[in-house]
Design brief:
76 residues; two-stranded antiparallel ribbon; 3 helices; 46% helix; MazE-like; DUF3018 family protein
């Protein structure tokens, strides 16, 4: 029987074959009574590479058709 790690490895390999890449974002445990650090600082640190990167027209062309207008309820 394959291990959970083998299953995850297979899943990630399947996604990579589709041209996708995992981008882990770590967040604070909201159930921890004594959280460590500043949550906003963690978000700022993790999002910095995206913030300073050059715009990618091909990437934006991919994202826009999948965007949903949560306030208007229509596909943008």
């Amino acid at each position: 029987m394959p291990s959970a790690l083998d299953g995850m490895r297979e899943y990630w390999e399947r996604l990579r074959r589709q041209g996708l890449w995992p981008v882990p974002i770590w967040v604070s445990d909201v159930n921890d009574p004594e959280p460590d650090g500043d949550p906003q600082s963690a978000v700022d640190t993790q999002s910095a590479p995206v913030t300073i990167s050059e715009p990618d027209p091909a990437g934006q062309a991919f994202v826009e058709p999948t965007s949903y207008d949560w306030f208007g309820g229509t596909i943008v």
